[in-house]
């Protein structure tokens, strides 16, 4: 009778819990069609040579993290972070910037129309293009014919700041972006493992500063807005919107003056020069909440 394998040998070759333990009896090999492939066992793992998907088509991985996201186990905090201008930049103007520049309307009004009529759309039909251009008072030909996602270039020390914040809060992104420009797979890979879920406007159906955008994130992540902090560089979208929803806001100033100094008397509004400074402010906030 053969000797049973040693403990060290079993560690070196662990037993697959899906397979019955071989007690030394001969066993016929499983037929090829009965073997579960790596893709079947891990359906969301990217395959070699896999192409990025159409951003208009929902990817199951977009929702994969939501069921497990909640407030941080130590502090109960949830932090949503804006993407463009806060986490990074792209090398060309966004669709919103292109249309707002072409419009004869005041820039703030043009951007409001774009947020309302474009950013929250899960797909862009020809009729939506017509409606947006009419509202902006520009010809339909102004709307670019070919739009593709542009790579996001992270600001200096972005991952260091995210790692520091992840010690004190659960991190997600909350951004205004059209479905034509979004690249959720690339964003997920870029910010992994510090950011656990992503909430682009075209997916959730709300665009900042609509308080419903912040409330949707809090509700989906099973956190009260009182335990949520939002970080962003747009005063209207990221500060006014967050405070309207009852969310603490950290504004990334990039050296700019505060647009509404009176709001600084609100203890729910903080100002940071950059993302690293914002991470320090969040750490201080988390320490105060635990004390």
UniProtKB/TrEMBL annotation:
Determine the domain of life of the protein's source. Answer: Bacteria
Q: What's a Pfam family this protein contains?
A: Hydrolase_like
Which keywords does the record carry?
Answer: Hydrolase
List the molecular function annotations (GO) for this entry.
Answer: hydrolase activity
In this chain, the stretch annotated as Disordered covers 1-75
Biased composition of type Basic and acidic residues is found at 16-36, 47-64
Q: Which NCBIfam families match?
A: HAD-SF-IA-v1 (TIGR01549)
The name this protein goes by in its record: HAD family hydrolase
């Amino acid at each position: 009778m053969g000797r049973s394998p040693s403990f060290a040998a079993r560690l070196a070759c662990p037993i697959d819990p899906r397979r019955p333990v071989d007690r030394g009896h001969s066993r016929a090999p499983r037929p090829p069609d009965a073997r579960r492939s790596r893709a079947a066992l891990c359906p969301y793992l990217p395959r070699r040579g896999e192409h990025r998907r159409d951003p208009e088509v929902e990817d199951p991985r977009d929702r994969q993290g939501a069921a497990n996201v909640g407030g941080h186990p130590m502090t109960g905090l949830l932090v949503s972070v804006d993407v463009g201008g806060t986490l990074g930049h792209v090398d060309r103007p966004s669709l919103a910037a292109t249309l707002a520049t072409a419009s004869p309307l005041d820039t703030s009004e043009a951007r409001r129309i774009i947020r309302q009529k474009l950013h929250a759309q899960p797909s862009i039909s020809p009729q939506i293009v017509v409606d947006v251009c009419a509202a902006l008072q520009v010809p339909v030909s102004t709307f670019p014919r070919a739009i593709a996602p542009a790579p996001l270039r992270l600001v200096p020390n972005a991952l260091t700041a995210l790692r520091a914040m992840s010690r004190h809060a659960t991190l997600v992104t909350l951004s205004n972006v059209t479905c034509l420009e979004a690249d959720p797979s690339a964003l997920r890979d870029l910010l992994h493992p510090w950011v656990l879920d992503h909430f682009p406007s075209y997916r959730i159906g709300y665009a900042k500063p609509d308080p419903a955008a912040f409330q949707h994130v809090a509700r989906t992540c099973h956190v009260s807005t009182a335990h949520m902090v939002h970080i962003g560089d747009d005063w209207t979208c990221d500060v006014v919107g967050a405070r309207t929803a009852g969310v603490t806001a950290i504004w990334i100033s990039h050296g700019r003056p505060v647009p509404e100094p009176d709001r600084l008397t609100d203890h729910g509004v903080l100002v940071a020069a950059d993302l690293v400074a914002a991470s320090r402010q969040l750490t201080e906030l988390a320490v105060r909440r635990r004390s």
